[in-house]
Amino acid sequence: MELAEIRQEIDRIDDEMLRLFCRRMDCAGEVAAYKAAHGMPVLNPAREQQVLDGVRQSAGDYGDAAAVVFSTMMDVSRALQHRRLAAGGALRNALGGAQHALFEAGQHPRIVCAGCPGAYADEAAGLLFPDAHTPQGHLAFVETFADVVAAVREGRADYGILPIENSSTGSVHEVYDLVMANRCTIAAAAELPVRHCLAALPGAELQNLHAVYSHPQGLSQCAEYIAAHGWQPCSCSNTAVAAEMVSRSGDTGIAAIASRRAAELYGLTILEDGVQTAANNRTRFIAISSRLVIPQDADKISLLFSLPHVTGSLYRTLARFAIEGLNLTKMESRPLRTGEFEYAFYLDFEGSLAHPATLDLLCALSEELPLFSFLGSYREISA
Predict the structure, then answer these.
(1) What is the mean pLDDT of residues 251-255?
(2) Beta strands 185-193 and 380-382, pairing class
(3) Mean pLDDT, to the nearest integer, of 111-133?
(4) Of 194, 163, 383, whose CA–CA distance to 278 is shortest?
(5) Residues 6 or more apart from 194 whose CB is under 8 A from it?
(6) Could you say which of 285, 305, 345, 374 is catalytic?
(7) What is the average pLDDT value for the chain, to the nearest integer?
(8) 285 beta partners
(9) Gap between the Cα atoms of 383 and 122, Å rounded
(10) Which end of the chain has fewer beta carbons closer than 10 Å to its terminal beta carbon, N or C?
(11) Residue 18 belongs to what domain range?
(12) CB–CB of 173/344 below 8 Å?
């Protein structure tokens, strides 16, 4: 056969497959009606596995490939059933009760950050909450990321500012673990340029330095610069805390890696600017809340979920987002600490709950996955 003839045959087969697919979807709708009438769940893992085993056996050499096609088809069919049954009632109710603004006109939310004035989280707070640095603002500082979460959880603060990811050194795993353990919700996010300065007491000189202090992330982001000078890297709880410590030390042989604002606040001299390894160094910060806050202009969604221990479960879950045309922007796995090498997945994607298909997908996953938490729908801004 000529290529044109083969393609014509493929086209005829595709037409027949499409007709049969549409018939199958109609049948899936009838199954949904039956399950609704008899109080049956949408997902029947045993039935799906039985079908896939039969496909592998019947398709011979094409068994595994055929199983992938059929598993995707069953996922699409199941999504239709979830839509027909308006699945995920608990999630729909929670989303329906969400607050739709970070704060109302005239309100001054209580904000908490780790460190002290001049920290990068301090800058993020000012970007997300414009009155944070005004006399009317309520901005407090605590020592650690865990203290930030505790302040929000216990109602001592409305929002907590936490770094979640850096463009050079990756995820801040401690923050991911705190979010997972405390089921915080994300109300907003900001991306900031992080330009580190080497700051020391007036009169200090580069050639006389022997140690540099900063947060471990700051030290990591400037590791090449520090190593090139042979200085001892020393960890602090925060970049601004490091600047404050150097300011009080009276020691011209040590320096801090911190922001220009921190150096100015604590009376330090900037010996060198832009000492980070990557010129375009940026950090994402999140604002966490104990309440579910979904702004009207929210365009990003974050989830936490675990998966069943079956072949292809991650692929099949991610394929559901592809089917709906949703762009995944971040995925992170963290251990559940059960001692069984089980993991939870964090997922960020671009999307809006105003789109029914997106809401239906999340509601379906909330009923199907072993662990599912809706972490937030929010707007991310950049400085």
Answers:
(1) 96
(2) parallel
(3) 93
(4) 194
(5) 120, 166, 221, 259, 276, 281, 282, 283
(6) 285
(7) 93
(8) 163, 190
(9) 13
(10) N
(11) 1-85
(12) no
Q: What is the tally of structural domains in the chain?
A: 3
Are 183 and 205 contained in the same domain?
A: no
Q: Is 285 a catalytic residue?
A: yes
Same domain, 157 and 230: no
Compute the chain's Rg from CA coordinates.
26
> Are 1 and 50 in a shared domain?
yes
Assign 265 a pLDDT band (cuts: 50, 70, 90). Answer: very high
Whether residues 186 and 114 fall in one domain: yes
* 358-307-370 Cα angle (round to 5): 85
**Each residue's pLDDT tens digit, 303-342:** 999 998 888 889 999 999 999 999 999 999 988 877 677 8
Tokens of 179: 């979010």
| Residue 86: band (very low, low, confident or very high) from pLDDT cuts 50, 70, 90 | confident
**Stretch (H or E) spanning 343:** strand 343-350
Which one of 169, 239, 283, 358 is the catalytic residue? Answer: 283
| pTM, rounded to two decimals | 0.87
Partners of 188 in beta bridges = 287
The per-residue pLDDT for 51 is: 93
User: Residue 283 catalytic?
Assistant: yes
d(CA 210, CA 254): 6
In a domain, 338, yes or no: no
